[in-house]
Task: structure prediction
Amino acid sequence: MASTLGTGAVTPDRRAAGAVRGRLTGPALIAPFALFYIVFLVGPLIYTFVAGFFNGSLLRDGFGSWVGLTNYADVLGDAEFWRTLKHTLWFTVLTTVPLVLLALLLAILADRFVRGRWFFRFAFFAPYVIPSASVSLIFMWGVLADQVGLAQDWLKALGVDSPPSWLGDPSWAMWSMAGVTVWWTVGFNFVLYLAGLQEIPRDVHEAAAIDGAGPWQRIRHVVVPMLGRTTTLVTVLQIVASLKVFDQIYMMTGGGPDGSTRPTLQYIVDTGFTDGRTGYASVVSLFLFLVILLISLVWFFLVRRAEKES
Amino acid sequence: MTGTTQTAAPAPRRRYDAEKLFNRVALGVLVAFALLWLVPLLFATAISIRPADEIAVDPTSWFSSNPTLAAYEDLFDKGKLPYWYANSFIVSLLTTVLTVGTASLAAFGLSQVRFRLRRVAFLLLLAGIMVPMQVLMIPQFLALQEVGLLNTYWGVVLPQVPNVVAVFVFKQFFDGIPRELVEAARADGAGWLRTYWQIVMPVARPAVSAVTIFVFVQVWNNFLWPLLVVTDPEMMTLPVGLNSVQDAFGIPYAQLMASAVLGAVPLLVVFSLFQRRIVEGIAGTGLK
Amino acid sequence: MLRRLTSPGRAAPGPAPGTAPGAPGDPAAPSRRALLRGGAGLAAGAAATAALSGCGSTIAQGFTGGEPPADRLNFWNPFTGGDGARMVAMQQEYEKAHPENSLRATTFVWGNPYYTKLSLATVGDRPPHVAVAHLSKLPVLARAGLLTELPGDALAGQGMTPEKFDAKPWRKSHVDDRLYGVPLDTHPFVLYFRTDIAEQAGLLDGGELAGIDGPDEFAAALRAAKEVTGAFGGSVASIKDSATQFRLFLSFYTQLGGRPLVADAGATVTVDLDAAEEALAYIRRLGEEKLIPTGADGQAAITMLTTGQAGFLMDGVWQIVAVLDSKVEFDMRPLPRIFSDAPYACFADSHALVLPRQPKRDDARVDLSLEFAASLLDSSRLWAEGGHIPAWLPTQRSAAYRELTPQSHYTEAAEGAAYDPVAWYGGAGSNLQINVGDAVTAALTGRSSPRAAAERVRSELRTLADVESPI
Result:
């Protein structure tokens, strides 16, 4: 409303002709994108919501028959759904914490060196451009394999007699998944932090140095606080990405051993595409969507409040 | 202590030492992490060029007295790798072109043209950022099944086109373009499309390259969506093919690592060549 | 492009046999599909033909969604390792005999990923022409309308008549009296043993294992072997291998006379809690007494046998190639009869060749596919070398097969074949196998008591059975 008033009433003199033609031009320019947006995003979202009230199946034609709130009740009472949600959240914690802190640390340290920075950038960011399929092959058969894997080999060299089966032991598998993910994606956050560091004016450092602050104090009291905005962004992006985990877990453990790593997204794929229960999987999708939405909103709200207080 | 006599000189000196020490430690930490980070890639490469009999004797050794490219040759001879490369490339390129085209056009409309409900339209689009594509797989799949686009490039491409982040990045950039530039073009009688194509887009190169890189990498590495949409082995993208299709002769270790390396190589090469630009592009799209 | 526009799409001349009623229903669908597809195709047409004309028809197909050429035979299977190598050899026989056709075989990851791919491909109108399916899965696939019913006369036309097949797998290839698969083999869960170790342990009698039937007897034999190896008596895979654990459990459970785990196509749970507990208690006993390892994956389990850390191996017959390759002295026999409460039983499954439902019916293609199936059957001897008991009687009854050792030493196991219970969530690599297998692993490793594990088996099954079937 405000904007229509703003363009139409307050500045009537500004290219009157353009504004008239703009009435159709604007929407026309947006139309191609909006078409994709409506067909592949808005439509499916509505469909997901509606499909939840039917017992649709991939293996039967048609929408299925109306089942009311049965799917919703079933999902809420489905222990496996809650378990996969727990795994998803646990994975998010296990990855977000190191992915933010490690990226922050590495970026701050790397920022001190002009020469050689390309090397660090390459080493940390290179894994990020590798497809998850390659990452999974490398870790499943190379690094984390039983008997022939590098990780077990190194541990044995360090004197550990029977190193754990990284992907086969239910108490280790999720940690392994988190470890692989940290390796794979820390570069992205690292790069975001490097960009954030570029925006801190040099004279801030110098001023702090003249005040007698050592390098560590400067990092703690000057640099990290000034990266606050970046940290917020990195954390939100990371949380959302981790909540959507699927690839590496699906490929390396298939959700096992003993279902101990299966994330909610895989539960959607398993129920929706392997079992073919599209109505049920739609409801699970909707719940996962709500969880992601809720967590990102809460995070934004918390940060907003913290910013206001300070 | 001896505060009265040694006031001026040693303090900066000590600070300088601390600085130097800190730098050393920092460098050590960084190098250690960087090497650790390179280990998996180097290990995979090292294994991929070892002959099978050596691997059988000592699977975790890094060295080979007889390095061979046999595993790579096998993959290219027997496998469908060339198809997967081609498919990945086509799919990524198509998606990128369509995304850059539609998103920049929409952003141009939102940024430079005044019209009713402009703000509402923008907010509606922006809300899409909150919707992860992964929760929409089922209806998208069913829709593509209905129109017979499963197992085609279009099936992989079209649902990935509405990328709200891309619109956002373009709009940010267009908002920063001096109004006079557009107004001058308009005054010269250029239509909106000409203004977009001849005036705005050439200026927007950085945004175009950022979005291109970001979308291309994302589509190239997308696994879940093509996994569902493409079942024909010759129609698969690289990540899906690497994961789904097995070698009938079992799991020769060297070949597994070779296929991992081959999967990683294209974007690694591109990344090495355009490191700075890619990093800036990613940071640019992720940040602001 | 034009061809696509006029192509009738899925408008087959009447519902293909085996499709669910109403599947090709909506008469408006094909024209709308063709139109949309054509539209997309036209849009891409210029680009496709101009830029990519040199890159082969596959890429053009990617733009237009066209179908593969008529002489192309797409074949999917889940065989790797020894099985894969043999299947490739069998395919080569076919190619030698039929150089005019182009066979394209693809191997996928076994289990749920394979069957998911198969059903998504069929649902998405691009199924392979021939595929391998386990008989434990065949009823599910058939009832879901994913398979073509095999016409008896066309089968006979290729020389495949009922009396030439092993009766049990042949019967299992039928659903509601309709034939949906050409059975290739029966592959039971068996016992491998090192003859040298068994000899030293004093377990051999005239070259054969003696006195290993019965719970204490088998444990005693394992203990004797353990004393020789200094490590374990036998080995079995338990890490990352819920399927093997399921097979072990189902063998013992069925020997105990346990009712089928589920009935009514999976709608009701009929598991016998006491039998399940007893079977699990025995598995736990073997683990607890360190007669078998509790932390070996599939590869390690085999390596333990081949490196002499274990004298026995409980595994599927298909591992024979891996053991043969190690050149150790070994033999095979059916899994021992641990419990005698019921007729002898051991887990088994069969591979069959199926024809997934095609977007449109094409009798010539069916003949082409069956010809390929017949050719594979004729190569059954090659398949038997890989451990599988051929379902093709001309091979199973041949002298050449009977002379094949140790492959012919466990033929009778096929008679005790205990297949997976029929359920839409059951079959090779299915949710049922995974969920039950995980509970068995928990018992083996001692994470759960046998009673708790048995109860978990029941509750896992109930959870699965409670779900309304999507078929």
About this structure: The longest helix of chain C spans residues 28-52. The domain at 188-350+416-466 of chain C is CATH 3.40.190.10 (D-Maltodextrin-Binding Protein; domain 2). DSSP finds 20 helices and 18 strands in chain C.
